[in-house]
Specification:
Distance between the termini: 14 Å
Number of helices: 3
Number of strands: 4
Helix content: 40-55%
Radius of gyration: 13 Å
Number of domains: 1
CATH superfamily: Glutaredoxin
CATH class: Alpha Beta
Shape: globular
Length: about 80
């Protein structure tokens, strides 16, 4: 299981695309996705309002804005391989 925090905002087209990408990878990589709406907390909102969507992996890797599938896949493969070693 790979823990993922997904920060998003309702109505954000980049967030929708990132969520769809994560959902497509969820089963293959056994992702445990925690969705966090940045508007639910003022501190989180101030931190991420210009960066959403934000995907944070359990190893501290962070992807934001126009997230490239290739970059996420590379990092997920590395994490998956570490867990199977």
């Amino acid at each position: 299981m790979i823990n993922v925090r997904f920060y998003y905002k309702e109505g954000c087209s980049l967030c929708i695309a990132a969520e769809e990408m994560l959902n497509g990878l969820e089963e293959k990589y056994q992702l445990d996705i925690e969705k966090i709406d940045i508007t639910s907390d003022d501190e989180i909102y101030e931190l991420y309002r210009y960066d959403v969507p934000v995907i944070e992996l359990e190893d501290g890797s962070v992807f934001h804005g126009r997230i490239k599938r290739k970059e996420i896949l590379q990092r997920l493969n590395e994490l998956k391989n570490k867990k199977t070693d």
